[in-house]
Structures are given as C-alpha cells and as structure tokens.
C-alpha cells in the first residue's frame, strides 16, 4: 500500500456516512485515519455529502491513491469552490 500524504487525491470506500465510493483530497493525516475534502461523489449520495459539508474522516484502510477517470467524472457530481463556501 502506498503511503498516503497530505494533498494526495484518494478514492474512499463507502462508509457509514455515504452509500457509494467517492474521491477526495487529503487535508490532514491522523494515526489510522485522514480528514478529507470530498471532490467527486455519486449523485445518489448528494444529501449525505451535503450533510457532511463535503468533508469526512476516513480510515486509511478504506482509501487508496487515485483520481477519477474521465468516464467516472461524467457520472459523478464534482464539488465546486462555491459548494465548499456555503
């Protein structure tokens, strides 16, 4: 497993707060988890992601370094700076 660092783009597995996998940027690393800002998520998870305010703490075991492909980007909702400012 690659070492995850602050600034990395990661794919996170669904968890208790979301029903589908999502992509995020790592903001802070803890001992066994990381604080992330969600960047791309499944549209069906819109309410959950908004309630999280586009941020979450995820286990390092539930993420891997990755970025969404162009095909995935078309199917997923991208988070804009305006959404984060709300």
TrEMBL record:
What organism does this protein naturally occur in? Lactiplantibacillus nangangensis
What is the designated name of this protein? DUF2187 domain-containing protein
């Amino acid at each position: 497993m690659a070492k995850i660092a602050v600034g990395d783009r990661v794919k996170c597995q669904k968890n208790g707060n979301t029903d589908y996998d999502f992509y995020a940027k790592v903001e802070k690393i803890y001992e066994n988890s990381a604080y992330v800002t969600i960047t791309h998520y499944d549209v069906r998870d819109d309410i959950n992601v908004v309630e999280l305010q586009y941020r979450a703490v995820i286990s390092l075991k539930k993420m891997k370094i990755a970025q969404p492909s162009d095909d995935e980007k078309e199917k997923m909702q991208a988070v804009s700076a305006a959404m984060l400012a709300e």
